[in-house]
Write a structure and sequence with these properties.
With 682 residues, the protein is an all-beta fold. It has five domains: 73 residues, no CATH class; 102 residues, Immunoglobulin-like, CATH 2.60.40; 105 residues, Immunoglobulin-like (Sandwich); 117 residues, Immunoglobulin-like, CATH 2.60.40; 219 residues, no CATH class. 2% of the residues lie in helices and 52% in strands.
Length: 682
């Protein structure tokens, strides 16, 4: 207040008590003349709102009171809330999340506060205040108030709280949240395994991806299907945690156990923790068993197809080879064990080993062996989609037709594949230590040369060294044919040999030949023709005809063979042998004695060549002839294509004498007689 007078002025303020309490300090004061005095007005509001008060004061010397008009807005305590919007963010359904809001009393007075939920639904209470709803804040005090969210309802949450301050403001608090269950998806949802094979693991990869930002716990369950024996399923990993935005790959290992198409009900559940229901992976597959194909001589055969490994014609004692290629048509890692059913081989000893042949037949009485380069216990590897080759060889020491089985045990296949083997062994086991005459182009046969002799010379004996190289006793029946230049002999085509009681050599008839004109007999017979060759010689046809009499015995069998010459006479023959039948022991060396008797030549009046062919007809005992059911069969006698053959050559000359006179004193006019007595044949 300013005293504008020239004298001091005493001021006395009144105190006011009511809805507002007003005090002035100092209450009493003297204001000097022409001076100013400052007073402090203290207003204490007891009621919030607009306050208008006339505050009285008394000046000495003045009877009336003066009034000071006072206006004020009375407000309550002021607080600050941080944050004013409480965002719980993305939370998992069922979780209980608690967060703190800070309430600060900005006023210098005590603030009595109460917090409450706006439009609260008692049926679904999502917000709770663990410390209660009422609290008091001292001046400048900060209070941390917990707010708990019960996430028991999916969806977006928007709740409102109010902080009510006694004699103060009502401050809103907004609460937001997104409540979700963990969720994920599978890519692809339908896994096509494609072609699979029994017991072969197939690995396929799928992707699990979290749909929302929640940590997603997953665990794979057991397949839901009727027939769980169709396949085995392995999953790696079976459980884990998915995070949003990160790829998670799962290995599905499929192992087929049965052939066929996988049932349509094969689903594998993947359980997501706290999810309403699992997600499913569907499986499709075509399951197959092990399968192979065979390649032999540029021909391809399927597993179930029948075919024969045919060596064809193989010379006795020679090694012949063929190869069987087997291709794996699947992804199965497999192997093959191979073995021969009957006619197997064994290794030769080092002493008996040869550079080109290191094995021999196990059963020497059979005389043939089929050889595999690996033992029966050794496995030929057969990689997936790969090919392996099995070499097969044959070696023999006896003629005949042989059949056997190559047995293949293929891993992954229950049955044993049996492939027939066939070979026709030609030739004979009798080794003849003779050589062919390179100068004689008319014959490719070995020749026994007797040289030149006089007609009445003494008989000459020559020996032919031979050996039975087989392990089977072999019978040889010798037949000698005289080779003449008789034109009537040249017109003969075939020779008919009768067999009585399976022995043709006790009933030879020298004139049992059928000439070219005898077509009627040939048309009435049924023949089976076999072809044989020796060097560059012409092809020969051998046939046989069986004629059975009305009586049960004897059995008469006729052999029809190409005509090779006139049978040598049993008496007074030029060429003869000591015995027409010989049984040669296994591996036996023997000598054939051939006698050439010049004096038996029917013509003695001119020089001539004596040529003959000797044929050894081979046979074995009945039990060694075999039968197709035994896997071997040996033709005998003339049915056996290749016999022992060689020729015998000799020249018969007439006796001759040449006389030369060397006498210079001889009188040519005088005739002298010379007389010689020369016995014929000496």
């Amino acid at each position: 207040l300013t005293n504008t007078s020239i004298s001091p002025l005493m001021v006395n303020w009144a105190n006011m008590i009511g809805e507002q309490i007003i005090n002035v300090e100092p209450v009493v004061a003297e204001i000097p003349a022409d001076a100013t005095c400052q007073f402090t007005i203290i207003l204490t509001g007891t009621k919030v709102g607009q306050a208008k008060v006339e505050l009285p004061f008394k000046l000495d010397g003045i009877d009336d009171y003066g009034y000071l008009h006072v206006e004020a807005d009375i407000v309550g305590p002021d607080i600050e809330i941080d944050p004013s919007t409480l965002d719980f963010g993305l939370i998992e359904y069922g979780e209980i999340i608690e967060k703190i809001i800070k309430i600060k009393n900005l006023s210098p007075i005590i603030a009595k506060c109460q917090i409450q939920e706006v439009n609260k639904d008692q049926s679904k209470s999502l917000i709770s205040l663990p410390n209660g709803t009422d609290f008091i804040l001292k001046p400048i005090e900060v209070y941390e108030m917990p707010i708990r969210l019960l996430a028991n309802e999916e969806g977006a949450l928007l709740e409102h709280l109010e902080v009510i301050i006694e004699d103060g403001k009502t401050i809103p608090v907004e609460i937001t949240a997104i409540i979700q269950r963990p969720s994920a998806y599978i890519s692809p949802v339908e896994l096509d395994i494609g072609e699979s094979f029994l017991n072969v693991p197939i690995v396929r990869q799928i992707e699990l991806q979290a749909i929302n930002g929640l940590p997603t716990h997953f665990q794979w369950g057991e397949p839901t299907c009727i027939d769980k024996n169709q396949c085995l399923i392995e999953i790696n990993p079976r459980q884990g945690i998915l995070y949003h935005g990160k790829q998670y790959f799962i290995d599905i290992i499929f192992i087929a156990q049965q052939c066929g198409i996988l049932n349509d009900d094969w689903h594998i559940p993947c359980y997501i923790q706290n999810a309403a229901q699992p997600i499913f992976l569907k499986l499709n597959a075509v399951m197959k068993e092990m399968n192979v194909e065979y390649r032999y001589e540029q021909n391809i055969f399927q597993y179930d197809e029948q075919f024969t490994l045919d060596f064809g014609r193989v010379s006795l004692g020679q090694k012949s080879c063929l190869e069987l290629a087997i291709t794996n048509l699947t992804d199965i890692e497999s192997g093959i064990k191979a073995k021969i059913e009957k006619f197997k081989t064994r290794p030769l000893s080092v002493a008996n080993g040869r550079k080109t042949q290191n094995f021999e037949p196990i059963d020497s009485d059979i005389g043939v062996g089929f050889h595999l380069d690996k033992s029966e216990s050794t496995v030929y590897p057969l990689p997936p989609r790969g090919t392996t080759t099995i070499p097969l060889s044959v070696i023999s020491s006896m003629w005949g037709n042989y059949t056997d089985l190559l047995q293949l045990q293929i891993d992954g296949m229950d049955s044993i594949k049996e492939i027939p083997i066939r070979v026709h062994i030609t030739g004979n086991p009798i080794k003849t230590y003779l050589s062919t005459n390179k100068n004689d182009k008319s014959s490719s046969l070995p020749i026994v040369q007797f040289g030149s002799m006089l007609h009445n010379s003494l008989p000459i004996i020559k020996q032919v060294h031979m050996q039975n190289i087989s392990h089977i006793p072999t019978r040889i029946d010798w037949v000698i044919y005289d080779i003449t230049e008789d034109t009537t002999e040249n017109s003969k085509l075939i020779e008919l040999i009768p067999v009585i009681d399976n022995n043709p050599f006790d009933s030879f008839i020298s004139d049992t030949t059928i000439t070219e004109n005898n077509d009627e007999l040939m048309s009435q017979t049924t023949t089976s023709t076999k072809i044989a060759s020796r060097g560059n010689s012409a092809m020969l046809a051998h046939s046989s005809v069986s004629i059975i009499d009305d009586k049960p015995t004897p059995l008469i069998k006729l052999y029809v063979k190409p005509y090779q010459g006139k049978r040598s006479s049993k008496t007074n023959a030029i060429y003869s042998i000591s015995s027409t039948t010989k049984i040669v022991k296994p591996r036996e060396h023997f000598y054939l004695d051939i006698t050439m008797t010049p004096r038996n030549c029917p013509r003695k009046d001119y020089p001539m060549k004596c040529t003959a062919r000797i044929i050894g007809i081979l046979s074995v005992s009945e039990e060694r002839q075999g039968s197709p059911s035994q896997g071997f069969h040996r033709p005998i006698y003339y049915e056996h294509e290749e016999q022992i053959e060689f020729e015998m050559h000799a020249s018969l000359e007439m006796p001759s004498l040449r006389v030369e006179l060397n006498d210079d004193d001889c009188n040519v006019n005088e005739v002298e007689a010379l007389s010689f007595a020369i016995p014929v044949g000496k």
